[in-house]
Please model this.
Amino acid sequence: MYRTHTCGELRIDNVGQEVILSGWIQGVRNLGGMTFITLRDRYGITQLVFDENTSDELKEKTAQLGREFVVKVGGKVIERSSKNPKMPTGDIEITVNNLEILNKSEIPPFTIEDETDGGDELRMKYRYLDLRRNPVRANLELRHRMGQEIRKYLDGEKFMEIETPYLIKSTPEGARDFIVPSRMNPGEFYALPQSPQTFKQLLMVSGFDRYFQIVKCFRDEDLRADRQPEFTQIDCEMSFVEQEDILTIFEGLAKYLFKEVKGLDFTEQFPRISYEEAMNSYGSDKPDIRFGMKFSEITKLAQGKGFKVFDSVEYIAGINAQACATYTRKQLDALTDFVKRPQVGANGLVYVKYNEDGSFKSSVDKFFGAEDLQEWANFMNAKPGDLLLILAGGKDKTQSALNDLRLEMGDRLGLRDKDTFAPCWVVDFPLLEWNEDEERFFAKHHPFTSPKKEDLDLFETDPGKMRANAYDFVINGVEIGGGSIRIFDADLQKKMFAALGISKDEAEEKFGFLLDAFKFGAPPHGGIAFGFDRWCSVFGGSESIRDFIAFPKNNSGRDVMIDSPSEVDAKQLEELALNLKKPDLK
Amino acid sequence: MYRTHTCGELRIDNVGQEVILSGWIQGVRNLGGMTFITLRDRYGITQLVFDENTSDELKEKTAQLGREFVVKVGGKVIERSSKNPKMPTGDIEITVNNLEILNKSEIPPFTIEDETDGGDELRMKYRYLDLRRNPVRANLELRHRMGQEIRKYLDGEKFMEIETPYLIKSTPEGARDFIVPSRMNPGEFYALPQSPQTFKQLLMVSGFDRYFQIVKCFRDEDLRADRQPEFTQIDCEMSFVEQEDILTIFEGLAKYLFKEVKGLDFTEQFPRISYEEAMNSYGSDKPDIRFGMKFSEITKLAQGKGFKVFDSVEYIAGINAQACATYTRKQLDALTDFVKRPQVGANGLVYVKYNEDGSFKSSVDKFFGAEDLQEWANFMNAKPGDLLLILAGGKDKTQSALNDLRLEMGDRLGLRDKDTFAPCWVVDFPLLEWNEDEERFFAKHHPFTSPKKEDLDLFETDPGKMRANAYDFVINGVEIGGGSIRIFDADLQKKMFAALGISKDEAEEKFGFLLDAFKFGAPPHGGIAFGFDRWCSVFGGSESIRDFIAFPKNNSGRDVMIDSPSEVDAKQLEELALNLKKPDLK
Model:
């Protein structure tokens, strides 16, 4: 037997018991006649003590021990003379009378501590050692807990988990597919799913009514920071529902997870923010509503006063940074530099200090008197002591830049605490999105997304104005999920394809089997998909999804631990009837 | 709102309520002035009634309805005059005052009934309609229930579900990999996992202690009947355990599933049968122990009596088919034909009828007298009225053929009821398997499987005799799962590689990163993997795993519904730096 207890289990009540523990050597401290060893496993750390009564043989063994050796020890639980209240097992220790080295360890390339000395690359190469560290293990424990609780909730709501295939069909739509050559069908390929979208809609046609799956999805994209070629989705679909039904069920899921996983009670309905309001107030369709600082548009107020920069633009708006009128020149310059960064893209920043004494000091004093500025201040709900930060330019670009500035100010003012959670729904997304390059509309969500009934007339008159029954779920400015009510009516679908410039033949080729299925009695249905990695990372208070994936890939799509992708045998390619284009360049 | 209730929900207590239901038209019966319509959804069937009070408008609508139309109806729950005790909703019906056709349906290519008129191929092409049928839906409901309960049990036992990657590295070992070309690393490939074996062992090195995952695996094999290129595994691994710990935990899982999913109590320990005993008694390492009819070897008893066929062979054994002495010539001929089939491969069948009157009649009366046959009968525990069926030949081949005959007799005698479950463990598998063609040993399980301690000396003297800490879980003659205790000691691993003829360089190339990981303190560990599709099919009483997969592939690895695999755009291949070998042959 390797153990009677785990290393996280023993308490003062166990004093006097003979126990067996197994685990890894965390540390060895020699204090003259006494040796203290900390033994670690997944469940915790227990202190072992070797004192003057320890046999010579045992002492010799302990002298051989190094960090990360695997040992099994037998001994008696005793009360510690100096207790450690920070450790759950801190009231006790084990006087060891038996020690067996189960396995040795080379010296690890970095320390297995909460704060390690290992750099990112080294830790990824030795990910199996990185995973031994408490914070990383805690992340995966959180992920495990999330997965189990999600299933518990959805099972309780009568959702059926149904596995859809991984070897599916490539469609030249959306992101790039990973493809898989078929040996049994030479010259043909499977594709790995970017999402089970069509399959879940087929399952609704099949009458499964409520489907979910926690499932890997694949996208062969050029990886931006924090994107992974394989990622996990909580994929859900329901029949005989309207948007409201879906929001209710999945707001329920979110509240359940907040409660079960984070211990947080959300009793009120989550805020629902229209896409339009989100853009106008936050400049983003994934607003971080942990703090206010909403945009105020002052285009009308600020134009016509002779300030050419303002007079020539489409849009002028600002935020009110409360109690920041005392910002120094240096601080304001830093903010100006921030908004001028290419990633943010503003041309400059206008500030208005509303001083405690009621006076104003602004970067546009030449053009605007105290009366003008007072008007802005009133409009923007500023009080003496506040600082107004104003950007101007094209509407979309300026909203985007002001969003960045707002988040930056939120960070600077400590308004974005990772342990505070502010969930919301963003609803009423536009149905279509105009693509300047191709001069045509694209589906904002996907081509099966249903328009709002009240907007149907706009198909003929102004399709760009149509709103969709589409919704995103956002926590702390991070898009956690999104979905839509689907079109299930053949005529409406035709109109939609027409608006997207998709011909009948093209529709047939791309979505043929789904359209065929819809001929046999498709129910009204809709769904949502959540990014599981992302949800875990937000709950874990991290910005990186990699921290919540056991074996992530780097930004070149490589797994540096197993050194993959890699070359394959010529025989394998032969069997697949494939040639490499440049076989001799490597 | 689409519904206040589902079609499976209404009972006599609901009489008098106004309800809204949505679903598919199962059938329409016109009985003069009355029309009865059955409305179906996932949850059940409810009868709608339209009588003389029905408005003309509504009557007109019902006249348009066809099978599988999707409708929403409003009406009042009333008590049926002639109740249907076979239907959960059979006490009530709905008098409809409102009907909306949500979607029409073309006439389905086969009937959506428990017993359909659709052939296999047609049902696969229209799988989304096949899935509407009760038995198929029930299979996937069983699968869903299994998945949830497995997670509940393992979570309760402190197993963590950890997702391992799908884009991994090809290893030219075992079955053939599916490979995935990497665009970002031209000329290089990922492989899809055949199992997460190495990753779960790495997770043990990482200290996760108890891991599981319900996960898709991939094998590019020439498909035999009922094999799928992608299949689902319940993959588990534990640290600081011996074989007994693993058997205990997973016997617990099986008992829990029998109880929760099938309502069956298994209170006794499952039988544990050594590999040797399984082969000697059943001729199979996955014995169906729903019935006895064990083999009796009579080589010594039967040789030396002048019957050349017997005298010249390695092995003679038989089974006792109780109360079958009355078998006719025709029945016995059929059995002889059965064993002579190429798949079974015996040369002939010897029978001995032990008649009710105590006399014997056999196909070898010329060589064996009543005394001889009585001796056989005694040895084989036969009573008057029994029939002995005997095969002779090489030991392996004869055991295999006698296994087939035993199962055939089990079927003929009704001893293999699909609702009776007989689980067992098969243990003490051989460590190595001699390959005649390559004249070397292969690992029976895999190269990390640990030999039994007491057999270690055999490495030098008789490696073929070594037994492994390996075990299979079998229900009703179907292998549901298998696993082993792993080698975690570097020296022992070296010996194992030596026995397998794997050089140091080869080991480094194939298992390098796992061997590297083992240098940093690998704990003793072991695990098991269950075939999830298979387990579902056995619980569901079916021999086909395809019945328990929502969207299975056919025997050529094709999904005929979505028509995959398929050709891809030249541009996709271009991006992947690949050429097809015979681009113009298609």
Chain A has four domains: 12-103, 135-268+529-573, 291-412, 423-522. Chain A touches chain B through 124 residues (CB under 8 Å).
